[in-house]
């Protein structure tokens, strides 16, 4: 099972590489050139600004994920680099139908759209039906599954996470103060630790059971 399209598949199709510095806009809803961008390295956030001036992160975009400037414009979202981000840029054949596109590229784009839809469905359920600890734990479990984890000297699974507590709060609809309290509660309960840019799963099976996490929705056999 793969949580994203392999970088090898993306590189094999050519395209133009481009790098964005941390904090810069990768695309927004005013973009007028239809493009498909695949993340080769780095983290980005797809977000909307609400009428009250607050930000809501609809998704974190990771290595292997696809960004459609057409979809971004339709959704009136902005995609901003959290770290330095390198993308591979392709013309968007869905908006420019006369482009001669390899069959593999069609399959990759369709598979990424399916993955995106599956993640969004889980996001809606997570935001609407879980409490603060559950929705935060679920988000971090999902990110760990998508980006991949390693094991440290204590044999705990972990992953490097460049997000701030404010980023996490914007993704689950909680204040930074509330996120700080939830992370402390999870650490004290022996479930998860988030310190110095590292998320460590102290008891991943128990956390998965508490939040009812099933990563099978990442799966697609199209590629």
Provide a descriptive summary of the structure in words.
With 223 residues, this protein is an alpha+beta fold. It folds into 2 domains: 7-126, Jelly Rolls; 131-218, Orthogonal Bundle (Arc Repressor Mutant, subunit A), CATH 1.10.10.10. It is built from 7 helices and 12 strands. The chain has helices at 7-12, 69-75, 103-129, 132-147, 165-172, 176-188, 204-211; strands at residues 16-20, 25-27, 35-41, 44-49, 55-61, 66-68, 78-81, 85-91, 150-151, 157-160, 192-195, 198-201. Strand 4 and strand 5 form a beta hairpin. This is Helix-turn-helix domain-containing protein. InterPro entries: cNMP-bd_dom (IPR000595), cNMP-bd_dom_sf (IPR018490), HTH_CRP (IPR012318), RmlC-like_jellyroll (IPR014710), WH-like_DNA-bd_sf (IPR036388), WH_DNA-bd_sf (IPR036390). It holds the Pfam family HTH_Crp_2.
State the main characteristics.
223 residues, alpha+beta, Jelly Rolls, Arc Repressor Mutant, subunit A, four-stranded antiparallel beta sheet, 38% helix, globular
Quick overview of this protein structure:
The protein is of the alpha+beta class and 223 residues long.
Beta-strand portion reads 25-35%
Class based on secondary structure composition and strand pairing: alpha+beta
Task: Record the strand order, biggest sheet.
Answer: 1-8-3-6
User: What kind of sheet is the major sheet?
Assistant: 4 strands, antiparallel
Pfam family, one: HTH_Crp_2
GO molecular function: DNA binding
GO biological process, one term: regulation of DNA-templated transcription
Protein name: Helix-turn-helix domain-containing protein
